[in-house]
Amino acid sequence: MIQIDNLNKQFGSITAVEDVSFKVEEGQICVLLGPSGCGKTTTLKMINRLIPLTSGKIQIGGKDTSEMDTVTLRRSIGYVIQQVGLFPNMTVEENICVVPDLLGWDKVKSRKRAAELLEVVALEPSRFLKRYPCELSGGQQQRVGVARALAADPPVMLMDEPFGAIDPINREVIQDEFMRIQRQVGKTVLFVSHDIDEAVKMADCVALFHAGKIEQFGTPDDLLARPNSEFVADFMGGDRIMKRLRLISAADVATKVPPRDHMQVVGGQSTTSSHTPLVVKPGDDLRQVLSLLLGQGKDWAVCNDQDGRFVGYVHQSDILAKLVENTTPVGH
Ligand SMILES: Nc1ncnc2c1ncn2[C@@H]1O[C@H](COP(=O)(O)OP(=O)(O)OP(=O)(O)O)[C@@H](O)[C@H]1O
Ligand SMILES: [Mg+2]
User: Fold this and answer.
1) Residue nearest to atom 11 of ligand 1 (CA)
2) pTM for the full predicted model
3) Does 133 share its domain with 277?
4) What is residue 258's three-state secondary structure?
5) Residue 150's CATH number
6) DSSP notation for 73-105
């Protein structure tokens, strides 16, 4: 658990962070979102004490970090910096093993882990372990940065735009991979991003910063559907209501109410209609489902589980109704 109370940072006359308070529960991903210069990196660096606080309190796992020595604190925190920051004179393997070596881990074990972690970030170990950072593209360097931060298995991860230099397709792959690992390891993660889609996909909670302050803290759905200011609504985008589609799965809207043009369905197979119904899975998000429906000119789909068992019908009208459920006008 990370708890931040009334954090302030003053650089001379510049107020970089002002009265920031929030709490992230253990095993959750909190995305720090906001425009350039709003204080996201400064906040992260105060957590691992790369920047001293002007005032405020930071607790990790209930302990006040000002009472921990810097080395112990930093060892318990994996950090992916915004500019990657690999050591240029070390190979990829040596870079990943920096902290495990410092901790005196078994060398054979940590080399094996370096290879595993490279696979996790989709870089083939045989091709990349012995290369130097200057022999990698920017996106590849970022992925090594993520592998390095995971190497010593710290309970807390601070990640400053870790996927920023990776193209959209590979970024999706790495996000999915990261989420898969996160489901297994359950780290407490603070993740800086500029990308709202990334935040909506990854975050349990979002802290939206504006000029050094938190403008709104909540779930992705809170910010999309119930923005508390014009700034939040603008930042989340004119299509923010549509972005909610991604947060809702087919199972959430599946109903036993059959479509009017399709009264008899047995196990998802039509017995009256000559048209094969569109079939979706319970875990498909409504963005995918709606795209399929619109693409095929259909009003509804059958939702079957992975064993082909009928779960329900997904009606286009129910998707649209779900979209506007629990929304409030800006500032209410
Ligand atoms: N060492 C410093 N001295 C003076 N001002 C600083 C210093 N570091 C950061 N700032 C200022 O503090 C503010 C917050 O900077 P910060 O790096 O936290 O922004 P950010 O939200 O991470 O932005 P970006 O998205 O561009 O990375 C900015 O106005 C920046 O110019
Ligand atoms: Mg930054």
Assistant:
1) 16
2) 0.86
3) no
4) coil
5) 3.40.50.300
6) HHHTEEEE-TT----TTS-HHHHHTHHHHHTT-
Range of the domain at 231: 2-240
Q: Is the CB of 36 under 6 A from ligand 1?
A: yes
CA–centroid distance, residue 312 to ligand 2 (Å): 45
| Residue of 31, 41, 43, 83 best suited for mutating to test ligand 1, as the one with most atoms within 8 Å of CB | 41
Among residues 207, 240, 273, which one ends one of the domains?
240
Using one digit for the tens of pLDDT, what is the confidence trace for 161-211? 888 877 888 788 878 878 887 887 889 999 999 889 999 999 999 999 999
pLDDT of residue 68: 92
Q: 136 near 95, Cβ under 8 Å? A: no
Ligand 1 site, residue 304, Cβ cutoff 6 A? no
Read out DSSP for 60-81?
ETTEEGGGS-HHHHHHTEEEE-
- Evaluate whether residue 61 is within a structural domain: yes
In this predicted model, what pLDDT tens digit does every residue of 260-287 receive, in sequence order?
876 555 555 554 444 688 999 999 999 9
Any atom of ligand 1 within 6 Å of the Cβ of 83: no
Residues 217 and 261 in one domain: no
Tally the domains of the chain.
2
Beta strands (DSSP E) in 72-211 are 77-80, 156-160, 188-193, 205-210
Domain C-terminal end among 224, 240, 256: 240
Angle at which helices 107-120 and 138-151 cross, to 10°: 130
Indicate whether residue 41 lines ligand 1 (CB < 6 A): yes
Cα distance between residue 44 and residue 113, in whole Å: 26
- In terms of domains, do 281 and 142 share one? no
Q: Is the CB of 52 under 6 A from ligand 1?
A: no
91 in a structural domain = yes
Domain CATH code at residue 253: 3.10.580.10
Mean pLDDT of 293-304: 94
